[in-house]
Structure of Peptide-methionine (R)-S-oxide reductase:
Amino acid sequence: MAAPTSSAQKSEEEWRAILSPEQFRILRQKGTELRGTGEYDKFYNDGVYNCAGCGTPLYKSTTKFNSGCGWPAFYEGFPGAISRFPDPDGRRTEITCTACGGHLGHVFKGEGFSTPTDERHCVNSVAIKFAPAETSSASL
Ligand SMILES: [Zn+2]
């Protein structure tokens, strides 16, 4: 596949114009929504979660699990959709949307969850947008 196009990259002013203040705070300023308040914290419908900034598919609902941590948790993203960076705090690993660079949350490893990867992508609900499953050709 081709590398993500630069069309998803925008200036801070452009992002401010298209995102809500809360989306801007989290996606562009690496904020964190309050624990247990997210729209998708306890949401398990069948579908796909897209980046709230650029619309790129990030996670399938089948990889979402109940971590009890107070934020949506996934054990795996779409291949290449999620980028990882060492967090400035020196301990955690930040995850971002590869296409637009939007901050999603953090990924934690080896916590003992019984998932295929033993990883927990701890994602802000505000940073993602749910799209219900439908019978389309985009099956994976
Ligand atoms: Zn994005």
